[in-house]
Write a structure and sequence with these properties.
mainly alpha
Length: 361
């Protein structure tokens, strides 16, 4: 399958930082610009998310609790279990980065996109990803303090800085949504480039600082291969647990799809600025596992979403809906990318919600 062009841009940004890292005054300018870019990204995020959608989404609380448990409980437990791989497979810094990866929030945009392709509960994916991002602003630094300790660089100032950089802009976007929400929705394609550009700038800044500090000699090709293998197992375990675990909890197929895609992913957009604050000069090595996992999850979940859209269970559900007179409408939604909204409390969420996707995750 073809590689996402954005992944190539991320790799190119890392290469640029390796060849032409920002130093001195240029590093200060790049750092300030990346901070402003991430704040603007979360401002747009707040302006896009309908407050009514978020409130209505709370009615489906079992699904959201399940996603949050996957993101902030099961993932960290698996990350802690990898401690036994040090120093045979992972170095201590790589393990810290891997553990940090397990602490960050879920994605929003890719969870929505894959849920839509697989004919899942799109409004639930929107709300689940959004709640995860907001909870993570506070929970991720606290988990980092508990599990990474002094190596994570956590302090009360770190928490304040993360809240100011992420939560305050989001709240500002929510407050101003009444006046700018329409503009943001109409120009979502153009503003999407701002989202991705913000992440590229943060990647360049973090890896430039790593080059200047000379930390890359700590990573060998064998260690990178070992890290990739560990992350592949981690992703496979989470995809399996979210799918079969949600079935055991008696969620319907549409909800299981949303849980699988929202509960098995980690957000690059949220993780990068947090790592920059928590790890400082060592942020580049700390976010390397997150960047690799981000690429892996996109490629694997794209294949799964495509298969989910054609699996026998989906076809049987479509036939049942057609017999009851609702199948044609749902099939039309799936083809146009708005997804399927299962019956129940979540029907209160507008089907057009999928068009108002949050920043790239």
């Amino acid at each position: 399958m073809p590689i996402d062009p954005y992944i190539l841009l991320l790799l190119g940004t890392v290469g640029l930082a390796a060849l032409l890292p920002a130093r001195g005054d240029a590093a200060d300018v790049a750092s300030g610009a990346s901070t402003a870019a991430i704040a603007f990204l979360f401002f747009l995020y707040g302006a896009r998310l309908s407050t009514r959608e978020a409130v209505d989404g709370l009615r489906h609380w079992r699904l959201h609790v399940t996603v949050l448990a996957c993101t902030f409980v099961i993932f960290p437990l698996l990350g802690m279990a990898t401690r036994g791989l040090v120093p045979v497979i992972l170095t201590d810094p790589l393990h810290q980065g891997l553990l940090f990866l397990t602490l960050v929030p879920s994605t929003v945009q890719s969870s929505i996109a894959f849920t839509s392709i697989a004919r899942g509960n799109v409004p639930a994916a929107i709300c689940a990803g959004s709640f995860s991002s907001l909870v993570g602003i506070v929970v991720t630094p606290l988990l980092a303090a508990a599990l990474l300790g002094s190596s994570g660089g956590f302090s009360a100032d770190s928490l304040v800085e993360i809240v100011l950089q992420l939560l305050v802009p989001f709240v500002a976007g929510q407050v101003l949504r009444r006046w700018i929400g329409g503009f943001v929705t109409r120009h979502k394609k153009v503003l999407g480039y701002v989202d991705r550009g913000s992440i590229l700038l943060v990647v360049y800044t973090a890896f430039s600082e790593g080059m200047v500090q000379g930390i890359w000699h700590q990573v060998s090709p064998a260690r990178l291969a070992g890290l990739l293998a560990v992350e592949a197992v981690l992703l496979a375990v989470m995809l399996t647990l979210t799918w079969y675990g949600s079935k055991a909890l008696r969620f319907d197929r549409a909800d299981r799809i949303a849980i699988q895609f929202a509960g098995s992913k980690k957000s690059l957009a949220s993780g990068l600025p947090m790592a920059s604050v928590l790890f400082g000069a060592h942020a580049s090595l700390a976010v390397l596992p997150l960047m690799l996992f981000h690429q892996m999850q996109l490629m694997v979940c794209a294949v799964i979403a495509k298969r989910r859209s054609h699996d026998p269970e989906a076809e049987a559900e479509s036939e049942r809906d057609t017999a009851s007179g609702t199948g044609a409408e749902k099939d039309s939604e799936a083809e146009t990318g708005t997804g399927t909204v299962a019956a129940g409390p979540r029907d209160a969420v507008s089907r057009s919600a999928a068009d108002r996707q949050a920043p790239s995750r």
